[in-house]
Amino acid sequence: MGFLKMEKLVLIFHVLTALSIIGLILLQQGKGAEAGASFGAGASQTVFGSQGSGNFFSRLTAIMATVFFVTSFGLALLAKQASEANVDADLPQVPAAVEQPAPGVEAPEADSDVPALEAAPATEVPTVDEIPEEGADEESPQ
Description:
The chain is mostly helical. It has a domain at 2-29 and 54-85. Helices cover 45% and strands 0% of the residues. The protein has 3 helices and no strands. α1 (2-27) runs antiparallel to α3 (53-85). The longest helix has 33 residues, at 53-85. The radius of gyration is 38 Å and the shape is elongated. InterPro entries: SecG (IPR004692). The chain crosses the membrane at residues 56-78.
């Protein structure tokens, strides 16, 4: 039970890390943003210091990417452990195959809990020549 909780916890942390990486990438400025600073748009970068937001967001994105890869590796290990633990648990027990005897040799009676089937009475199947055609009168020769 604790194993499943651990896997869910790592999975939730993994998804939150992925969403934070997406948010951080969307917040970063492109390379063309420096050109706007010469026209008076540079005042918005003073919140993050004289270097602007690029260095801060770049480092935070790198850290979150590292966390993302570590949680990916952790999820892979947890999945491997779960598959090794349940390999034989869900498989049905199948009896060993019985060899078929050669033609003409009687097979020994097998002990089984399944009752034997009774043979159905053989019915004769008519051949194509014996089936009358539709619309043809049976009494008149053709």
